[in-house]
Amino acid sequence: MADLTTNFLGISSPNPYWLASAPPTDKEYNVRRAFEAGWGGVVWKTLGAEGPPVVNVNGPRYGAIYGADRRLLGLNNIELITDRPLGVNLEEMARVKADYPDRALIASIMVPCEEEAWKAILPRVAETGADGIELNFGCPHGMSERGMGSAVGQVPEYIEMVTRWCKQYYDRPVIVKLTPNITDIRKPAAAAKNGGADAVSLINTINSITSVNLDTFSPEPSIDGKGSHGGYCGPAVKPIALSMVSEIARAEATHGLPISGIGGVTTWRDAAEFISLGCGTVQVCTAAMTYGFKIIDELTAGLSEWMDEKGYSSIDEVIGRAVPNVTDWQYLNLNYIAKAKIDQDQCIKCGRCYAACEDTSHQAISMSEDRVFEVIDEECVACNLCVDVCPVEDCISMVPMAPGEVDPRTGKEVQPTYANWTTHPNNPMAKAAE
Amino acid sequence: MAQGQMAPGIVAGRLSSDELTSNFTDLHPPLAPHEAAVAADRCYFCYDAPCVTACPTDIDIPLFIRQIQAGQPQSAGRTILEQNILGGMCARVCPTETLCEEACVREAAEGKPVEIGRLQRFATDDIMASGAHPFERAAPTGKTVAVVGAGPAGLACAHRLAMLGHDVVIHESKPKPGGLNEYGIAAYKSTNDFAQAEVDWLLKIGGIAIETGSVLGDSISLDGLLENYNAVFLSIGLAGVNALRAGGVEKDGVRAAVDFISDVRQADELVNLPVGRNVVVIGGGMTAVDAAVKSKLLGAEHVTIAYRRDRDAMGASRYEQDLAASHGVRILTNVQPVAVHGNGTAAEIELEYTSSQNGQLTGTGETIRLPADQVLKAIGQTLDGAPEGLTLDGNKIAVSGAGRTSMSGVWAGGDCAAGGEDLTVTAVAEGRDAAMDIHATLVS
To answer: Distance (Å, rounded) from C-alpha A307 to C-alpha A317?
Structure first.
C-alpha cells in the first residue's frame, strides 16, 4: 500500500485529505467525528474577531444544482463564518488538537483589515496548538460586504499587507485562501507569496445564484422572497479550480509555492488530479456534506490503490507531475492530427454523435438508413464533440494519424515534427523556426 | 369463506375478496414523480429515435420524455395525445417490449430499455387527472360522420373528426363504449374502470354522440348510414370466434376466452365469478395469456396454455409468456386438442403432440390427457357481420391508403380492416389516419 502520509509546510497528516473550512468543521463534535472517520486534517470553520458573534440567516442557507437522480453537482451557500463565540472555538480547537496530535488542525481566520485586529487574534490562535492558519480572503457573500473575505482577496495589495502582518505576529505556517472571483488568479497568489505566505489554498467559492423561483421570482436560496448571491462549490466547479491551480503552479512568480487544492474534490481521482497539478493537500467540503464523513474510506483507499498501480510510493512523487504538460495554446503541436473512430461493435445507434456533428459541428459523421454511423475522414477535424456526447464510454475514440499518412481533409501529409502557432505561416507574428 | 383452489368444477369464490383485490391490482403501478424523473433521465434523446419508428402512432417519445425531465408532464401528455388520443390506455396495454422499448437503444446497450410505457402513463395520467381536455374543436364544417363501433379505432377516428370540426355519431352494439379496451383487455392492466374514464375524458372534445345498442345489420344498415351521413367509418372489430375443431367442444365448461375475459372485466364482484379448478387455455396469443393469468388470479389450481406450435411461434411476446409463467401458468407447446372428454361436462382434455415440417403441422399420434373442468378457446377472432358489398382481403375488410374501402364514402380501421397488427395502438393509428383522409375528402 502506498504511503499517503503528507508533509505540507512541515505539517504532518496521515493522508492529504483535509476538511475545508466550512460547516463540517464548525465545532468539536463534528471534527472529532471526522478524525474518527479517518480524515487527515481539518481547517476549522473561519474564526472572526472577539465580540458579539456573527449572525446567520434563519432560512435556507444552501441551494443546489442536480444531475440525474438528484445527484448533487453544485452547491451554493450564504452561510457566514462561525457564529459561535471565539473563546468557545479556541477552547475546542485546543482540546481536539491535544487528542489528535497526528492530524492537521488549521485555524481559518477572517478579521477586519486592520493590523490591530490580526495582532489581537493571532496569539490566541497560537495558544490552541493549531498547526497553522489559513487566511480567509475568499468568502464571496456577506462578510465581503463588510470589507472582509473576497473583498480582501480581490485586492492583491491587501493580501500582501495582511499576510505580512500574519507572518510578523504568528510563527507557524500561514496559508492564504484565494477567491476565484477575480480575472487573473496569478496576481493574488503572487501577492500572497510576496507577503511571505507559506502556501495558498484555492479555490474558495464562486459567486452564484443557483436558480430563480418562477412563481415568486426570487433567487434561490430564498429568504422571505429575496435572494443574495452565494458561494458555489461542489463537483461542478472542479474544472475551474484545476485551471486556477495549474496557473499558479506554472507561473514564474509562484512556481513552487505550496498549494492546498480545493474545489469539487469528490472521489480519489479528483484528488489525484489536484495533486498532479501541484497540490500538496486537498480540501474537501461538498462531498462530505453530501455523503457524510465515511467517503474518506474511498478517498484514501482509491488514491492508495492508484498509486500502487502506477508504482508511486509517496504523495511527494505525484505532486506536480502534470504541471509540465500544462502549456499555452500557442505551444500546442499543430502537426498532431487525429480522426474520430467509431467502434461499431460498441455503438448502440442512438445517433447523438450524428446530431451533434451534423447540427453543431463539421458534418463529419454519416448516417445510413439502418442507423450505421461512420466518420467522414475528409470532414473530421477531431474536435472530440462526438466522444463527449456519446453515452457509451470508449465507443468513439480519437485516433492519431501516423507521420507520412495523408490527412484526407487537407490532402497534406502528416509531419513527424512538432510545430506550433508561433511558427505557423498564417501567424502574422510568426518567428522563423529556429 | 373462500372455497379454495381444490374445490372441484367451475365455482365462484375460490379466493377471498381481499385476495382477489390484491391479485387484480395494477400490473405496473404508476411511477411516483421522483421515479418518473429518474426513469426520464435515462433517455438519450436519440436522433431520429428508433422508439418513434417502432410506435404505430409515431408518438415523439424523446420529446415527451424530455418534457417530463423538464418538469412539465402536462406538456408531455399533450405531445402523446396529439398523436394518440388513447395514449393513456396504450401506456397500459401496449406490448412495449415488442414496440418502442424493444427499439430503445438502451435495450441494445444493457438489456434495460427506458420505461417508455410507464413514463407515458405518468404523463397521460397527469393530464387526465387535471380534468381539462387539451384540445379544441375547429370551426364547424356542417358535416356529420357515422362511426360504427366505439372501440379504439372508432374513438380515435371520432375524436380526430370532432377536432377538425365535424359532428360524429358513434353506433355501438354493446351497452358500453370502449370496445376491447372495455371488454377485452386484461383486468390487471386496466384497473379502476380506466377504459370508461378515458372515454368520458375523450368525449369532452364535444361533437361526438354515442348510440349504444345500435347494431349494424340489425337496427342500422350501411346503406342507411350512407344516406344519413357524409361519410362512414367502420371499426366493428372481430365479433366472431374461430371454431375449435375437436371432439366434445359442445360440452359444458368449454367457452371462448374472450367471453371469459369480458365477464371478468364486467364483474361487479370478482368473488362471484366462477372459474375452474383445472383450466386449459387453447391458443398462443395475448388473449390466451390474459385468460390463463386471469384464471390463475381467480384461484384456479392448475392452469395450462396449450399451443399447437413452438414457443417462438406464439403470438404472445416473450414478456407475456414470462408473465404467465411467473403466475404459475404452465405453457405446453406443440400440442393440439383432439377431444374434450366428460359426461356432458368437461372433465379432461385430450391433446395430441405435433411436429412441424416446412410450416406444415402434423399430429404425431401420441396423446396426453389433462384434467380440465374449464376449457377456454383463444384461437383467434374473426370478422362477423361485415356489410354486404365490401371487398374483403382474406377474412378482413380490404382497405387502401388511409383506410379506404372498396365502397365510396366508407372507410374502415382497427381489427376488422386488413393490414397492421391487431393492437390497440395500431387501431388508434388507423382511426386517426382515416379521420384525416375523411376530412380531406369532405372539405375538398
So the answer is: 9
